[in-house]
Amino acid sequence: MKIKSFLIIIFISSVLLNCKQVEENSVVELITVEEMDSLLEMSKVQLIDVRTPGEYTQGYIEGAINIDFRNENFEDLISKIDKSKPVIVYCARGGRSNKCSSYMKKAGFTKIYDLDGGITEWKFKKRKVIK
């Protein structure tokens, strides 16, 4: 009986440690517009605009897909994104993308970039916006 209890404790401990390890391996990095320029040029990142569809139609960064953070189906929609590839998220100024990044980290995304200042900063730095 003691061996069975011991094995159960070992199993539970390993599961908990593995869950913690996944969360620690996930990284959220706040990036500048200039850093985002480099990332978009150098690597294959997934670009996600977490603003509302109405905001998105007013202008978005080329290559971005729109997944509204406030949409009731947000979790289902974001689960369709490849967790193993780097992701850049942005919103209007950074509030929603920060919350989205935290969610994505818990959901197991491995590398998450959050655009500091959002599309507002992107426009301020005279970067191209698609309308």
Percent helix, as a range, is 40-55%
Please tell me the total number of domains: 1
- In whole angstroms, the N-to-C terminal distance is 68 Å
Q: Which shape, going by the Cα principal axes?
A: globular
CATH level-3 fold name: Oxidized Rhodanese, domain 1
How many distinct beta strands? 5
Largest sheet: spatial strand order: 1-5-4-2-3
Annotated CATH architecture: 3-Layer(aba) Sandwich
Q: Radius of gyration, Cα only, in angstroms?
A: 18 Å
Low-pLDDT parts are: 5-13, 15-23
Specify the biggest β-sheet.
5 strands, parallel
Provide the succession of SSEs: HEHEHEHEHEH
The named CATH superfamily: Rhodanese-like domain
Q: Mean pLDDT, as a whole number?
A: 86
Which structural class best describes the helix and strand composition? alpha/beta
* Number of DSSP helical runs: 6
Q: Report the β-strand fraction as a percent range.
A: 15-25%
